[in-house]
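Question (not urgent): is this output format expected?
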Amino acid sequence: MANTHAQAAKIIGTGALIKSYETSGSNTAVTVSTPTTRGRALKLLAVFVAYSTTVSKNVTVTFNAGHGSAFDALMTTIALSSAADGVWLPDSEIIISPAGGDAIDVLAPAGGAGETASVTILTREM
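Got this back:
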């Protein structure tokens, strides 16, 4: 289960800044999702991924629709090629409805022996 941390609204914008994050175990994939227990809509600000060493992996960012898996959609792939970290900043506004069960899921595959992966999803309440 991902950790979720909400900062006071005065930090940024009009709503609370929410960070959902997790670090994998050694040579283990990690999936982080935005919270679905919050009542207000969320704006996706950024996705960060960091491995403990350089890797060549594809990290997927998926819209997980609350109204059924037939509506789920791959939003982007963060392609790491001999790199330890990457970031995705959406080039258009992405709003999700946690009250409707919508979430953003980020999957970072296992890195290899002794390697860990850390994922952070940054959103803001609307």
